[in-house]
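Table S2 (text version). Query chain:
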Amino acid sequence: MAMAIVRSGLLRTALRGRRQYGSTRRTFSSSAYHDDAYETAKWEKITYAGIATCTILAIYNLSKGHPHHEEPPPYPYLHIRNKEFPWGPDGLFEMKHHDDH
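Corresponding structure-token output:
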């Protein structure tokens, strides 16, 4: 199936012959070649300015202090533990203190 489509396309191209107009490059009504280099340079400058602006704003925001809130009162209904954790009473990442040594 795909081979038949390729053969059909090649046959159609061969029967049409060569193009009569010289340029094979696509041109659009809103752009020309000399505008492309200008637009590329313009957007490159805008990109670098945006990167610099974002970096400066990030450094400024990260260098400011942040408010520390007061420690909440130890309410008795918080952190209720009715069962032992499966890894034991010492915690998962703390040093284990065993008396059998």
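Notes on Table S2: The radius of gyration is 36 Å. The mean pLDDT is 77.
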